[in-house]
Design brief:
The protein has 303 residues and is of the alpha/beta class. The two termini are 42 Å apart. Helix 3 crosses helix 4 and helix 3 runs parallel beside helix 5. The protein has ten helices and 14 strands. It has a six-stranded mixed sheet with strand order 6-7-8-3-9-10, with helices on both faces. The chain has a four-stranded antiparallel sheet with strand order 2-1-4-5, with helices on one face. The model has no long low-confidence stretch (mean pLDDT 94). The chain has two domains: 215 residues, P-loop containing nucleotide triphosphate hydrolases (Rossmann fold); 76 residues, Alpha-Beta Plaits (2-Layer Sandwich).
Amino acid sequence: MTTAKLVIDNLTKSFDGQHLANNHISLEISPAKITAFLGHNGAGKSTLLNQMIGFTKPDQGDILYGDISFIYNRKQARTLISYMSQQYAPLDKLTVEQNLEILGKMRGLSSQELEKAISQLLTDLEIEDYRYKKGKDLSGGLKRLTSFAMTLIGSSDIILLDEPTNDVDPIRREKQWQLLQKLASKGHTIIIVTHNLLEVEKYADNYALFNNGKLLKSGKVKQIIHDKLYQISFDFKTKSILDKIEDYTIINGVSCQLEIEERSLAPLIAQLTEELGQKTISNLSLHQKTLTISDLYREELTN
């Protein structure tokens, strides 16, 4: 298995020549990690996945895996990538087992390897009882889980998943994430589009946040949690004191509340302590707030 970084370089795509579905996106995606693509519907996440797998050709830019360009070597890209779209994959007239067999054979598994891989996946996802059920007889959640298993069987270097936990019950969603973590620990590059921020916080290593075709922010999920934000409140006698402060909220006409990052805390506290001594403010309080990826999402997409 290759364990190179997946490098997205200045990727740009427009479908109508006016609006950019992907707007000059540059991003490095690490191997052996789960990277979550986040953002509102229509932010450009699925378009980006489609360019990785070669379904859509960009207007500009490249996608590199080591020295391989996925834009100019689409066939090679598809040998290195497994892709799960938002649509159900199982063929209606085939059983769950038969659907998995087709994908496993296409990815070069021997008969012995295939049997072992199918049994393991069905057991891990707790869908062994549906092994001989045809696709047309499965519920939406079971179709999604079968699609998920079809993506994982044969374990390509890079695994792209577009909202794989939709329609799936909480217990089996946890099983899905655990399987992805296991594959990442073996060196696979995992990219998942999801709207479930709590699951991202619990299971993903990295994130990339998109809006209106642009990459707004990316980094390590745990770094968000470790960042510190402080909530400050005080009562004021005159509003003139607020001229020295930015991004605050006035409550009941006499109280001020604001949130501030740790790097800006010391000078503001010094200023407010001086005002407190001069009795221009009172009831000064300071509380540390733990950040979550939901806070980041809300802050970036509502500003």
